[in-house]
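Re: that backbone. Tokens:
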């Protein structure tokens, strides 16, 4: 859990404890409306803290599963260039056992694909992933 999340949880727990204390004091002096309000606020705060902790556990478990499975992100739709030909950009259509199925970019999605080819993995260099757009085949 990162520091910001830990600090948020600590603050929520402290706030909840303060609200519970306010509930007890309000009950002692007969301020029932304030007592009920403080109790409700404490309950909501405790639920929020529990929710954050549960989400952290689930996210950690998913990260562990991904790391254990050795999965990689899908490459379909990413832009690449072929080694030795940096002037022509291509879009990966599919990942294959020994390479990628690619087509030149830009591609008109309303027309049949032309010049589709298979290229070995070691002959491909990925361009900036932030500039890539998904190809909708």
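Recovered sequence:
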């Amino acid at each position: 859990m990162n520091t910001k999340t830990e600090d948020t949880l600590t603050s929520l727990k402290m706030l909840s404890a303060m609200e519970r204390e306010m509930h007890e004091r309000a009950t002692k002096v007969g301020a029932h409306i304030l007592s009920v309000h403080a109790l409700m606020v404490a309950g909501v705060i405790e639920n929020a803290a529990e929710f954050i902790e549960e989400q952290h556990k689930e996210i950690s478990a998913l990260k562990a599963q991904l790391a254990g499975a050795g999965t990689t992100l899908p490459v379909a739709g990413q832009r690449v260039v072929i080694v030795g030909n940096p002037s022509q950009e291509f879009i990966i259509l599919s990942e294959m056992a020994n390479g990628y199925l690619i087509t030149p970019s830009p591609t008109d999605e309303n027309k049949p694909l032309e010049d589709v080819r298979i290229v070995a993995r070691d002959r491909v260099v990925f361009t900036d992933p932030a500039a890539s757009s998904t190809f909708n085949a």
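The chain has a mean pLDDT of 84. Residues 3-69 form one domain.
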